[in-house]
Amino acid sequence: MPRGRPPDERSAPTLEQVARVAGVSIATASRVVTGAVPVSPDRRARVQQAISLLGYVPDERARDLRRRVHKTVGLLVPSLGDPLHADVFRILHRELSRDGFTLLVFETTGKADAEKASMDVLVRNHARAVVVAAAAGLAPPILQLLRRRDIRAIFYNDRPPQPAATCVCVDDHGGALLLTSHLIGLGHRRIALVAGALDGSTGVDRHAGYSAALAAAGSATDPQLVAGFGWTSEVGRQAATGLLRIADPPTAILAAHPSLAAGALIAIRERGLDIPGDISLASFFESDYLRFVDPPITCLGGLGAAVAAGIMTTLRTEHTGLVEIPLAASIRGSTAAPPVRA
Amino acid sequence: MPRGRPPDERSAPTLEQVARVAGVSIATASRVVTGAVPVSPDRRARVQQAISLLGYVPDERARDLRRRVHKTVGLLVPSLGDPLHADVFRILHRELSRDGFTLLVFETTGKADAEKASMDVLVRNHARAVVVAAAAGLAPPILQLLRRRDIRAIFYNDRPPQPAATCVCVDDHGGALLLTSHLIGLGHRRIALVAGALDGSTGVDRHAGYSAALAAAGSATDPQLVAGFGWTSEVGRQAATGLLRIADPPTAILAAHPSLAAGALIAIRERGLDIPGDISLASFFESDYLRFVDPPITCLGGLGAAVAAGIMTTLRTEHTGLVEIPLAASIRGSTAAPPVRA
DNA sequence: ATGAAAGCGCTAACAG
DNA sequence: CTGTTAGCGCTTTCAT
Asked: Would you state the pLDDT for residue B321?
């Protein structure tokens, strides 16, 4: 038998100690802690006194073990630095804490083995659900493991690899359409897209939305005006630099991500152009700096909150399927009518 | 007695099931899982086969409960958006996972009640240690709770409220001294400080280091050249705008935080000044954009890694006391000799 | 309203 | 080497 070490007073007090101090049974002590079942007032008081005297705090793990419930949810994101993911984390964390859940975050940088390792930890900790931003890399075997374990997977941002999976997706197509139409409405005809990587639905859908808006206005998509197939500011900068050098340069640039917009911003300034006098700039999604920059940049707002809300609903209602997050544009100083030309 | 529900095959397989399938005792199964004690080759093989057949994964919580160990560490930061904290999170997470630990992150935004709530969760989950960036708000009662629970507290960034506490601190004074001396060495005499809030050791020490460097060069600190007592880019922008308007404006600006530098950068551009031709700019710490901006901005580098390393050492060696992280400057294009003047 | 006791899934004595 | 067994701290049935 395990050597039951002498009850260490330094160690965390247990329910048994509380019960002893209060002079009641463990069961009664438990009942006042959980608060569910009726306990006589005087005993309740004695137990509560013992609790605060000892500084008792229930052991969440023992509790879950016995209750056979799993109050852990995982979040897998490529990067916590990304404002969208940071927002989702913040809000998810807040909401889940409210329900007594624990959120385990993993930064996977899109690497498959990191995702594998993260999933392993989550399984070992009996996660009930896992929220995944980096859908692309989540290999089928992992998905299978999740299913086998009855762990709900909720994808967001990118559309999931499996058609029937639960997903909270931003309306990328609609967003691009919205922003591009805004630019067209302002009078722009040469609108460039700094597109982002086209290996996931995010990039592809934004590109499609952009093209659709153009088509609706009667123009074709000029391949010369689409560049920047990555997600870093350096990619954005180089793409914009190239875009500004072509024969018939754009009067507006739409960036598919704040980092891309940051790069474009630098390129525009290097070129000595004025925003929005010479060129307009609009970006997907929100980021602190988009507001602080001069002029503040038009973008698609309120996203993190909406995504997080969608995830919470999905989590709570056991909903399965696709949730589309509607998008709204925050029109700011960086977009205006194009300069008049010859 | 609890109604042992019929063994649900959908649910996570237990060691007992593994043992049954392998035709061995549950103890033997446990032994091959933990891998510690000798087990005969054939039995080992049978168990391993059963494990992969069932897809068995040990339940971390039951394990910890039985082992009476606590493999959870908490991290409390004001904001995950801050590159320093994001770095610390990333590295801590990686290192701790390696040791089988779980990292629970909390964004407290410096609010005392958020810190209180976070600590509560950590206590309930039997955290072994908690790493705290927002030292200022961690009220004494919480500290007391931690001590009582024998939870190690490791502070970083700000110096802790309690003198004897364990702390991994950046050498803020030395860093400011280093950067300011660099600027002085370049020939600058009018060096401004965008200081950050002076209600914590971080801001105060950086200010002191700046003054010390000035004093060493034989100049006094001109109060007119110190502004920006907050941590947002907006504060930095306003401070720098003011600084550039005074009668005898600075030829160099030292920002106490990347956000402050971002604001200063905007102000400088608004003023139409060239970096580093008209004015030099240096910043505390690293941030992606500091590298991508044109010109890249001189700053203090490698910080997150160093802090995280210090924390890990502290965690592993049970070290108590103060660890100072040495700082190194990354000299980049944003600092050069001041313009020649009349 | 209360207490005794049976385990949740696991590890580690202890005795073969 | 292997099996038996006593709990880790907690909740909950069952019987008072």
From this structure: 82
B299 bridge partner residues: B283, B330
Mean pLDDT of A121-132: 90
Name residue A223's beta-bridge partners.
none
Tell me, yes or no, if A245 comes closer than 8 A to chain B by beta carbon. no
- 3-class DSSP state for residue A22? helix
Are B288 and A97 an interchain contact pair (Cβ–Cβ within 8 Å)?
no
Contacts 24+ apart (CB under 8 A), B146-151: B146/B119, B148/A55, B149/A12, B149/A55, B149/B123, B150/A10, B150/A11, B151/B122, B151/B123, B151/B127
Which pLDDT score, from 0 to 100, does residue B205 have? 94
3-state secondary structure of A116: helix
Across A130-144, B1-15, B146-160, least confident range: B1-15
Using DSSP's 3-state secondary structure scheme, residue A60 falls into helix
- Best interface-test mutation with B: which of A8, A11, A52, A61 has the largest number of B CBs within 10 A? A61
How far is the C-alpha of A114 from the C-alpha of A118, rounded, in Å?
Answer: 6
- Written in H, E and C, the secondary structure of chain B is CCCCCCCCCCCCCCHHHHHHHHCCCHHHHHHHHHCCCCCCHHHHHHHHHHHHHHCCCCCHHHHHHHHCCCCEEEEEECCCCCHHHHHHHHHHHHHHHHCCCEEEEEECCCCHHHHHHHHHHHHHCCCCEEEECCHHHCCHHHHHHHHHHCCEEEEECCCCCCCCCEEEEECHHHHHHHHHHHHHHCCCCCEEEECCCCCCHHHHHHHHHHHHHHHHCCCCCCHHHEECCCCCHHHHHHHHHHHHHCCCCCCEEEECCHHHHHHHHHHHHHCCCCCCCCCEEEECCCCHHHHHCCCCCEEEECHHHHHHHHHHHHHHHCCCCEEEECCEEECCCCCCCCCCCC
Taken in order B213, B215, B221, B225, the sign of the CA dihedral is negative
* 3-class DSSP assignment, residue A154: strand
Nearest CA in chain A to B233: A292
pLDDT mean across residues, chain B? 88
Which residue approaches D8 most closely, CA to C1'?
A: B66
Give the pLDDT band of residue A277 (cuts 50, 70, 90): very high
What pTM does this model have?
0.83
Residue B156's DSSP bridge partners are B168
Q: Strand D: which of residues 55-114 in chain B lie with Cβ below 7 A? A: 62, 65-66, 68
pLDDT exceeds cutoff 90 at B147: no
- Over 80: is that where the pLDDT of B17 sits? yes
pLDDT digits (tens, 9 = 90+) for A138-177: 677 777 888 888 888 888 887 776 666 788 888 899 999 9
E strand segments, chain A: 72-77, 102-107, 129-132, 152-156, 166-170, 191-194, 226-227, 252-255, 280-283, 298-301, 322-325, 328-330
Return the higher-pLDDT residue of A111 and A279. A279
